[in-house]
Amino acid sequence: MRVSMDIELKDAPGQLLLALNPISELKGNLKSIVHHHEERTPRSTIPVQLVFEVEPENLDLIISRLEENGIGVARVDEKRFMEHGAVILIGHIVHTDIQDTIDTIDKTGFAEVVDICLSMPHIDKRSSASLKIDAVGRKELHEAMAVLKEVAEKKDLLVIEPIEAEVA
Amino acid sequence: MHKGDISMRKVRASIIGFGSVGRGVAEVILQKDDELKSLGIDLDVVAIADSRGAEINTEGIDLNASLARKSETGTVAIEDLTGEYVIRNVDHDLVIETTPTDIETGGTGLVNMLAAFENGRDVVTSNKGPLTLKYQELMKAASEADCKFMFEATVGGAMPIINLVKGTLAGNEIMSIEGILNGTCNYILTRMMEEKASYEQMLAESKELGIAETDPTYDVEGIDAACKLVILSNSIFGQNATFQDVEVTGITKITPESLALAYDEGYVIKLIGEVRKDRLRVSPRLVPASHPLAVGGTLNVASVRTDLAGTVTVAGRGAGSIETASAILGDVISIYRE
């Protein structure tokens, strides 16, 4: 997931390194650093804004190591879901337990159904639904699609996925 | 103009199969005689065969007369001879094989192609069946006999794909090819979206317009597209794939509601064939409405993903008598031009 974080450094040599080491040690991928060297907080510390990507389970550890190093963590803003996917289902979607279908995605822990739009033209006819799925990353979105296809096959639902090709 | 600089090459050809594609080939050869000569190719058709017999003239057949006889009597036949007999016994260089596709056994097409190679004749074909079933066997027979074997017309009709990848994009590593390889399915899906109509209604319309066949199974169940993927996989990725290796889902379950829901999200639904080294798949897919693959009507389209050239996309008419003949003519010229 992508994390944006405001930290506060003491005005002393080596402080930035103390702040960045825990992130790299826990396999965080740094995206940007804004170091406001001329500014001061009311506490006379230097404000720094970081953006990095990291596995969700490592975030708490990063924060506690930063604090151990004497770095103030003023704000943490995490954006859990980086990837958004759309998919269409066709079949007896409601009668094959739509809640269960959604749950199989939500239960993965790395992806969630965030929107569903359902069209049921006639009681005996096949329904159609468009689902939006958010996932932690690209790999996880693919996995969520695979999970969905597996459950759809059992319920005789047709899954229509997006093409692989990137927009040229 | 004196053309002494161009050495003229005499090419004697047979047209085996005189349905819509075979007749298109005859018309195109008549129409393009001067162009062929300017490329140094003096093409004579010395035999034509259809399912009821053959016409042979070693001096060169009058194609206008053959076309007229076919449309009047339903056959080109003058003698009661099979295509295979013609291939084995009439002295010529090139067999243009345009018999109907049989994907169960390869049918007469397979027999004809193997007979051509046995007798040292080059083959240009539009017939998918034999290539889908016996690709490696055919390639081996052609190379052992030192014969040329070209089949651009089997995939995508007039849309260039095999020669594009093997010729123009030579040297590139091909990662994948994705595209719409069946015009009938594209037409039905396009019309379902436009008219908010059911699959059954638009299938009926397609039949009426002659876009879908009376038995549309091959097209709408994705079998035709799957055969084309097999040919692409074998010819471009050097695989030994057969129809059984393709995951196939057709378009018969697509609802007008699903097309509308997809459109609300910025997508169209297309029957997409996808070839990569480890996967062959035909299935309905969501294509962003602004993506180059989102072409409508009966068009075919293919995106080739490469390491050097990036993604190259081509679109064109995937079927039709003259369009398919265009692909055949291109193959003939590339074999015999100096």
Written overview of the protein:
With 168 residues, chain A is an alpha+beta fold. Chain A has 2 domains: 2-79, 2-Layer Sandwich (Alpha-Beta Plaits); 83-160, Alpha-Beta Plaits. In chain A, 28% of the residues lie in helices and 36% in strands. In chain A, strands 2-3-1-4 form a 4-stranded antiparallel beta sheet, with helices on one face. In chain A, a hairpin with a 7-residue loop joins strand 6 and strand 7. In chain A, helix 1 runs antiparallel to helix 2 (59-68). The longest helix of chain A is centred in the last third of the chain and has 17 residues, at 138-154. Chain A is elongated and about 75 Å long. By secondary structure, chain B is an alpha/beta fold. Chain B has 2 domains: 9-158 and 321-336, NAD(P)-binding Rossmann-like Domain (Rossmann fold, 3-Layer(aba) Sandwich); 163-317, Dihydrodipicolinate Reductase, domain 2. Helices cover 41% and strands 22% of the residues of chain B. In chain B, the strands form 2 sheets. In chain B, strands 3-2-1-4-5-6 form a 6-stranded mixed beta sheet, sandwiched between helices. In chain B, strands 8-10-9-7-11-12 form a 6-stranded mixed beta sheet. Chain B is globular and about 65 Å long.
Summarize the structure.
The complex is a heterodimer of chains A (about 170) and B (about 350). Chain A is an alpha+beta fold. In chain A, about 30% of the residues lie in helices and about 35% in strands.
What is the terminal separation of chain A in angstroms? Answer: 26 Å
Q: Unreliable stretches of chain A, pLDDT < 50, 5 or more residues?
A: none
What CATH architecture of the largest domain in chain B do you see? Answer: 3-Layer(aba) Sandwich
In which order are the strands of the major sheet of chain A placed? 2-3-1-4
CATH superfamily of the largest domain in chain B: NAD(P)-binding Rossmann-like Domain
Query: Which second-level CATH architecture of the largest domain in chain A applies?
Result: 2-Layer Sandwich
